[in-house]
Fold:
Amino acid sequence: MAVDACVQLHSNVQLAVIGDIHARMSVLARVLQWIDVRRPDGILLVGDLGRGLGRGEPTDKRRERYRKTVAKVLDAVRALGLPVAWVPGNHDLPDWDPEVWPGNLDYRTTTIAGLRVAGIGGAGPHRFGFAYEWDEDDIRARTVPPCDVLLSHCPPARTALDFVPNHKVHAGSEAVRELALRHQGFLVCGHIHESPAVEILGNCLCMNVGGLGYPYGRAQVGLITREPGCDRALHYDFEDNRERHWERRYSSEIAGS
Structure:
């Protein structure tokens, strides 16, 4: 299940990345205003878009209320007129009709401005009774096609991206880590709201963009940039007015493989 870089670009391509929104519309509005000024080539949403499902099997009424919050989030993001791709998170439903809910990349791929993006929704291996949870072997059994960006809700295990400070534990996925180590390009994720960070695993620049929704949510956003010979990541925290930058350089032979 090789996951390799796809394209050699001759100009910069930028994708904005928004963390776990949980239908927190006022914070999302601040983030979208920032994105509208930057005008990237597209927007990626790492999951946990809506709210209201809770734990256990939701009633039809809760499902309907929840789907309305997701529709509101997607409408707000798409209003910028940019390509949008997303995956469901562990707080989201796993079943989305692509004809009704376009842009869902779970088990799917798309191309935005020449970059191939493949999606991995849900989270694991820890189970808490939320709507979309999986075991490590479920991810290992997936066929992930060659791509430039892995759009994953769950972060790779044993990194700064999956560390839960209050409990001093790592809560990410070993299977997602294995994917990252076989990948040349980007992996963007969320899930652990309080741990926005970047870590390079092999030839993969991995970024957790942090969460907008509760708990530990705040106004923050990520931006990934592919340019000839270099992958870059930016994270901006609106509340601290703090901008952080990372990069991974590579040869043109790797980029074109």
User: Anything to note?
Assistant: Residues 253-257 have pLDDT under 50 and may be disordered. The helical segments are 25-38, 60-78, 136-140, 174-181, 252-255.
